[in-house]
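Handout for the seminar on molecular recognition.
Each group receives one record of this type.
Step one: identify the two inputs.
Step two: read the structure output and locate the region that could contact fe (ii) ion.
Step three: write two sentences on what you found, then compare them with the reference statements printed after the record.
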Amino acid sequence: MQPLPPGAPATLNDAFGYITNLKTPTVEDMMVMVLVEAASKNLYEALADGVPDEQAKALLRANGREELGHAHRVARAIGKITGTDYPVPSAAENPYLAAPLPKYEVNKAMLAGLAEVEFNGDNLYGAWADHCGNADAAALFRENGREEIGHGKRLEQASALLAA
Ligand SMILES: [Fe+2]
Ligand SMILES: [Fe+2]
């Protein structure tokens, strides 16, 4: 199991709450984001398993694949800042996946609400880019932010495919 970064929240849920409104991250906070983004791939797979519609499943899985990509970009951004990339753990090695994921009630409203969280992800990464003082890391954060908008749009599509 990869160790939690110093001072990191203990659970995935706490880590989401912590990171969502954090505009000026430390390097340790960026490490938390790597773990959260990597775990988000598994979260999206769990959501996909919970919807009956094949097209909605595909949209959710596409988001999940990109979340793992986000973990790798943040890991590289840490490398631009510190000189050493942070390792992206496999699911088995991710401390935020040590406990079983909660069983989600996936429905139209839930996916629409999650779309808003994803749109906010663009603002969050934009703030990280504005504050980080390293042009290469900032570019990686902005790339993630742009894709979070795409995630919000996919979630709106997936929501529209589900019965009310
Ligand atoms: Fe992401
Ligand atoms: Fe996302």
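Reference statements: The CA atoms of residues 53 and 162 lie 7 Å apart. The radius of gyration is 15 Å.
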